[in-house]
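Intended use. Records such as the Cupin domain-containing protein entry shown here are meant for training and evaluating sequence-to-structure methods. They are not intended to support clinical decisions.
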Amino acid sequence: MSFPTIRRVVTGHDIAGRAVVASDGPLPTVVEIAAIPGTVFHEVWSTSESPAAVNNGADPTVGALMLPPPKQGTRMRFVDIPPDTPEFLAHGAAKMHDAFSQVGDAEASTVKANSPHPLMHRTESIDYGVVIEGEMTLVLDDGEVALKPGSVVIQRGTNHAWANRSGRPCRMLFVLIDGAYHPAIAAALHTLAEGE
């Protein structure tokens, strides 16, 4: 099963201040993650400050792939996630450093020998994840939630993974917003890391 190509329409302003179409077409940055074949990142847009600069600037998606949003910024992407395979579940953890390195954040991977899924990771951000097509399971340190099209997850910097147990690909839309842990949560995470 393959998903439709994503069309992106970007607006802007002409010299007189009138709204115009700045670009209309396929996304310029679509990358398959080599360590997890079938996982494809479709980079839609990002901002690098808050409040976001409203201008006719260059396309922020061209360049190196980065998992987290920029500091004080946002990132929007679609991700196509293939079904988990027995091979991936048994040996995928060994490939996660490479996978997260390709998306510019090797430190995001939190997988350990006793992790509930090889893709366990954490970013210091608020992430909105929407299931567009297919089915997904949100895996947390303690618990799981089955998701169907239209399900929305508000990820608040928690350790998690996306497990595709459906037997077919899933497409999700993510909007990531740079964040900072509350001091009590930061302290608890630090204590947890020291105890491992």
